[in-house]
Each structure stands twice: as C-alpha cells, then as structure tokens.
Specification:
mainly alpha; globular
Length: 370
C-alpha cells in the first residue's frame, strides 16, 4: 500500500477532492461560457415580463410593432459593428452612426435635388456607406492608424459633411417648394410597409391587427442569415475569427491580416448604408443628424451579444438577442419614466454593458486558473 493514499493511488484524499472540485468548477464555467445565448434569452424574458407587468400599453400590439420596426436599424448597425470588433487588433468603429447619416443624405440629394430614379439613389446610398467604410479600413489597415483614432476622426468628419451638404436641412424640405416634397411611395414601403401588403404574402395572419414589418423579413433577416453563414461556413469567416484570436499565428498561416480587417470595416460601412435606406424610408425624410448616438448603441449591442472586445469571438444570434434587449429596454423605460427616460435609458444600458463585460472577464479568468 502506498503511504500517500489509503488505496495506494498515490493521491491523498484532500488532493483528490480538490482536483474534483476544480474539474467541476471548470466544467460549470464552460457551461456558462457556452450558454451565452441562453443567458441572453433569460435576460430578455425577464425584462419583457417586468415591463409587461408594470408598464401600461407595453404589451399593446402597436407598441411591439413599432419597437421591432424601428429596432431593425440599430440591429443592422450592431451586426456590422460586431464584424469590426471580431477582427481584433483593438478594432472598433465609432463612425457607424455618422456613416448612416451621410449615406442617407446622399440618397435624399440624388432623388429629391437631382431627380434621379429612387432605386439608383438607393444604390448610391449603399455604395456611399461601403466607400466610407473602405476609407476607415484603409486608414486602419494600410496607414496603420489605431482604429479608435481613425473612427473617432471620421465620426466627426462624416457627421459634419452630412450637415453641410444641405446646410443642416432635411430632405424633402418644405422651404423649397420647387423640389419634390416626398419620396416615392414604393420606397416608403421599405420602412413603413408590411409583408401582408404584398399580394402573394397576404395570407399571413396579422397579430392583433398589426402586420409583420417589411424591413424585418426582406432586409434584416436576409442580412443576418447571410452574415451568420459567412462567419461560420466560409473561408473568409474563419479568417476573420483567426485574425481576431491571434493575428501573429494568422500571418504564419499565410492570412493577410490587414486585408481581412480592411473588409471588416468595409462591411460595417455597407451595413450602415443599408440601415440608412431603411431609416430614410421609415421617417420618409433624409435627416443629417439622424445617426447621432447610434454608434454607442451599436457597440453596446455587439459586446452584450457576446462579441469579445479583444476580438475573435461572437455570433450573429447573440447580437440579434442583444438588439432585442436594448430596444425593448429603451422602449419600456420610455413608457415607464416619460420625460425622465432620457436620463435613465443610457444609465441602464451602461449597467447592462458593464455587467456583461464583468461576467465575460470573470469566466475567462476562472477558466484560465482552472
């Protein structure tokens, strides 16, 4: 019999129990890390239940419809932002809101002031977003300026250009009666229509008289599905995660790190251009400061959704759930607090974000120790 254990195992009872305890802890933490989506679902359900019980009209069909209809815009920006952060290297894009504003103004100018076909104007809007994202990507990847500095500069620059293009005036502009006073109705449908308005989809039932927003089915869901597919099932997606996890190892694997990161910023610009189309159609107006504040919401949605701020980690379903949490949190607080909501909405969002980051870091450090 070995002197170090009662059954000759060579392991003392306390040491064996400690090993089992550590193994159990590591297993539990891995379950927590892998169950991010479940945690987000629970958080969303808790918020939804709270506001349903304490806020009149929160469960009203029109309120739910309006929240989802408007939430598509920040959801699109959140997915684009997540691609930049996943790429690593301190990747972040503070300019997504400004890109949305400037792209939307290009759409308004092309259609209202220049009289161009609305679908050419839509294409110009999306192309503008892509080009703005490419400029960010070039400054980060080719010139090697830190992403925070680049996108902070373009945040101010793009916003200033959007304001100056029409001297801060929205389009259409009632003070210029010689110009068209509305966008074409078929364009407005993108932001205000329902899928039931389409003849071959009219059989879909309405919910308490409210339809399913057009932009959810024909804009947001296709973008989300394609992005999820690219991230998980294509070489480009694997490169993006690989660069985010370990850029040096990616270089040794013959991956062009800066090319990958360039396209991440370009994609964020493309998504901002698409969001600008939806926003302009929803409000029936190209407004030069409409993207103000959306950059921070997009970053919050990405990080809350499980995108690691250090890169290399994150999923589209997590970002979608996070977007739902944020838009319904803002709506619920707005209905509950009225005029005071403007103070407490950002505060609640900040608490949510800090809590999420702390949980991520705690799990990461405990897993490293275990």
């Amino acid at each position: 019999m070995s002197p170090s254990g009662p059954m000759g195992t060579g392991v003392s009872r306390p040491a064996g129990e400690e090993g089992l305890r550590r193994a159990g802890l590591a297993g539990s933490l891995r379950v927590i890390a892998a169950a991010r989506l479940a945690l987000l679902i629970v958080l969303f359900a808790a918020l939804f239940a709270y506001f349903s019980l304490h806020v009149p009209n929160f469960l009203g069909a029109y309120n739910i419809y309006s929240v989802v209809q408007n939430g598509v815009i920040i959801g699109i920006l959140g997915i684009g932002e997540s691609l930049v952060i996943i790429s690593g290297g301190g990747g972040i894009d503070l300019s997504v809101g400004s890109m949305l504003s400037l792209s939307g103004m290009i759409l308004g100018i092309m259609n209202i002031e220049w009289g161009m076909n609305i679908w050419l104007a839509v294409a110009g809007c999306i192309l503008t977003g892509l080009l703005l994202g490419c400029l960010n990507g070039l400054l980060v990847s080719l010139v090697r300026i830190p992403p925070l500095i680049v996108t902070l500069a373009t945040f101010y620059g793009y916003a200033a250009i959007a304001l100056q293009l029409t001297n801060t005036r929205p389009l259409p502009d009632a003070t210029q009666p010689n110009l068209p006073q509305s966008f074409p109705s078929e364009f407005i449908t993108i932001g205000n229509g329902n899928i039931q308005d389409i003849s071959w989809l009219s059989l879909f039932p309405k919910i308490s008289g409210e339809g399913i927003p057009f932009q959810v089915v024909f804009v947001f869901l296709p973008l989300a599905v394609v992005t999820a597919f690219v991230l998980r099932r294509t070489v480009g997606g694997r490169y993006l995660y690989g660069v985010g996890v370990n850029a040096l190892a990616a270089r040794f694997s013959a991956i062009h790190v800066w090319v990958v990161r360039f396209w991440a910023y370009a994609a964020a610009g493309l998504f901002a251009g698409v969001a600008a189309v939806v926003q302009t159609a929803l409000s029936a107006s190209a407004t030069p400061n409409v993207g103000e504040g959306l950059n921070l919401q997009a970053i919050t949605i990405a990080v809350l959704g499980g995108v690691s701020i250090t890169g290399g980690e994150g999923t589209v379903p997590g970002v979608i759930l996070s977007a739902l949490i944020v838009i319904f949190l803002y709506n619920g607080l707005g209905l509950q607090l009225g005029n005071n909501a403007g103070v407490w909405q950002p505060f609640a969002l900040g608490v949510l974000l800090i809590g999420s980051v702390l949980l991520n870091e705690w799990v990461r450090r405990r897993l490293a120790v275990a």
